[in-house]
Backbone:
């Protein structure tokens, strides 16, 4: 198992590799790291109040990393990618060279455009999260290029349009004897199941890989029937239903050339007519 660090300098080649490998694996575990919380709901808050705080935080905070681990039903791991983003919108922070690679964070608009087309090209993928409400909120924000919808029902509909087949390990643990109804963090759950971490906690790549390994262990130990858990996120009562309505995003014109001329992008390259170009 390995974790590939992705920066602006190796973004396009690694996305090409990710696109190719996604053709062979049916599961993607994901994790996000972001700049924090401004509002923290009370323990007794209603679901609507929780969503209000989710929207408030997600609209105002930024992603710093997103991690993906590809795997299949047999437990084969296809690899883990950790995308590191620029620290501030529109600002380029040059870091030191490492192994000849310029460690500049990935531009968020370029990533959003590419991610949307990866999702569309691999629409049969099953997305695995751990306590994934914020992970999925940032996915919606990324792909739509807009603030989150005003209501939780609109959010669920948008999420169904984008990813659809979602499984939340913390939600599943509620129904697994001995896992304390899921009332624990990822690290403790992994320890209880005898799953070891690769990498550092609270790094998106390491957490995505650990989420994948925990899910696979749970499937084996508890003989899970995964269809029973599809579409449910921990803390959300409404099931997420997948449909294939396209979601329009905004892409600055300067990035279109990267997407349309990159010949290795056989399945995710898009033409000018498929992108909504907005002035950002």
Residues:
């Amino acid at each position: 198992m390995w974790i590939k660090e992705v920066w602006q300098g190796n973004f396009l080649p690694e996305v090409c590799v990710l696109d190719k490998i996604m053709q062979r694996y049916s599961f993607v575990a994901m994790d996000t790291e972001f700049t924090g919380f401004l509002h923290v709901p009370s323990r007794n808050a209603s679901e609507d109040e929780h969503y209000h705080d989710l929207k408030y935080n997600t609209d105002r905070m930024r992603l710093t990393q997103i991690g993906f681990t590809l795997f299949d039903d047999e437990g084969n791991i296809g690899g883990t990618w950790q995308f590191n983003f620029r620290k501030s919108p529109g600002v380029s922070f040059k870091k030191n060279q490492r192994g000849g690679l310029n460690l500049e964070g990935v531009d968020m608009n370029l990533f959003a455009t590419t991610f949307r087309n990866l999702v569309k090209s691999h629409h049969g993928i099953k997305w695995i999260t751990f306590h994934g409400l914020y992970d999925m909120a940032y996915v919606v924000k990324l792909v739509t290029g807009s603030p989150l919808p005003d209501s939780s029902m609109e959010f669920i509909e948008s999420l169904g349009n984008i990813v659809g087949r979602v499984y939340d390990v913390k939600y599943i643990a509620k129904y697994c004897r001995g896992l304390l109804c899921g009332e624990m963090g990822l690290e403790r759950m992994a320890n209880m199941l005898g799953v070891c971490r690769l990498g550092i906690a609270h790094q998106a790549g390491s957490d995505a890989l650990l989420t994948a390994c925990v899910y696979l262990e749970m499937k084996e130990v508890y003989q899970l029937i995964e269809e029973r858990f599809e579409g449910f996120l921990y803390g959300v009562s409404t099931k997420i239903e997948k449909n294939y309505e396209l979601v329009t995003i905004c892409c600055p014109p300067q990035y279109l050339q990267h997407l349309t001329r990159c010949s290795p992008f056989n399945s995710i390259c898009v033409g000018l007519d498929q992108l909504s170009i907005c002035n950002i």
About this structure: The two ends are 39 Å apart (CA to CA). The beta strands are 3-6, 27-34, 63-71, 77-84, 97-98, 101-102, 126-129, 166-168.
